[in-house]
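Kindly review this record before class:
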Amino acid sequence: MTKYIEKRRQIVKDVFHIDLDEVEDIDNSLDPEELAEMNVIPGCIIHYYSKYKVRWDLCIIFFAIYNSFMTPVAIAYEPAWSNEAWYTTVDLILNAFYIADIFVNLRTTYIDEGGQEVFTSRRMA
């Protein structure tokens, strides 16, 4: 068991550059600001300024523009392609992206009134 713990500590040190011997007792009692200063961020948190988040937002904007043109045309004119498999498939995929976007935004940090980046899940949701 001790070898396992030491191996885990070494992985954390190599990957996250955190020496767990120096950081003794990190738990929920620490403020998010203290965690940010120690470069310890809870898992599955997306920074609002991340390049991946920016790309994700641009894709969602592109999908919304596509929907804003295609949906009214499909409803108003009922073209033959609106009942084809490709259109239905694209529509379902875009709807899945919109649902995923809700969850992505629930895990994205933001800047509060004091100018601090918020990392806690309860405050982000």
About this structure: The mean pLDDT is 81. The CA atoms of residues 74 and 82 lie 6 Å apart. The beta strands are 110-111, 117-118.
